[in-house]
Amino acid sequence: AARAYHDKVIDHYENPRNVGSMDKNDKNVGTGLVGAPACGDVMKLQIRVNNDGEIVETAFKTFGCGSAIASSSLATEWVKGMNVDDARKIKNSDIAKELSLPPVKLHCSMLAEDAIKAAIANLKEKRTEAGAQN
Ligand code: FES
């Protein structure tokens, strides 16, 4: 029988990287919380940046399907060490390709792209607010 999932999906699903949570009130932490309207799955992805805007730590919690968990695991691995401007350029199609997701599972990788963007947006918001208080 054909494998329903590619090995890389299984690996990220069984051994997800960077599962966890960071303090969302930390000024260096950006939190992205997104949901997929199609299935109701939810993903929380967090990034911690240093003063140079480099992502030094990541965490995620995904309440969703195996492909969504694998997508968020891969995304947190990819963005670690990246500048936020580069992280924002990650496309769901890159994630889907790396994991060999079938078309029906594309929205799962979309969740990861959205979550990265939401986390970066949250961080920028915080920084703007912090700047306004100075
Ligand atoms: Fe909806 Fe995977 S089935 S995120």
From TrEMBL:
GO biological process terms on file = iron-sulfur cluster assembly
User: Which keywords has UniProt assigned to this entry?
Assistant: 2Fe-2S, Iron, Iron-sulfur, Metal-binding, Mitochondrion, Transit peptide
Identify one Gene Ontology CC term for this UniProt entry. Answer: mitochondrial matrix
- What sections of the sequence does the record tag as coiled-coil? none
Keyword Mitochondrion listed: yes
Subcellular location as annotated: Mitochondrion matrix
Question: What GO molecular functions are on record for this protein?
Answer: 2 iron, 2 sulfur cluster binding; iron ion binding
- Reported cofactor(s): [2Fe-2S] cluster
Q: Per the annotation, which location comes first and is thus the protein's main one?
A: mitochondrion
**NIF system FeS cluster assembly NifU N-terminal domain: residues covered:** 4-129
Question: What CDD domains does the record point to?
Answer: IscU_like
Q: Which NCBIfam families match?
A: iscU
Query: What is the stated purpose of this protein?
Result: Scaffold protein for the de novo synthesis of iron-sulfur (Fe-S) clusters within mitochondria, which is required for maturation of both mitochondrial and cytoplasmic [2Fe-2S] and [4Fe-4S] proteins.
Family according to the record? Belongs to the NifU family.
Protein name, UniProt field: Iron-sulfur cluster assembly protein
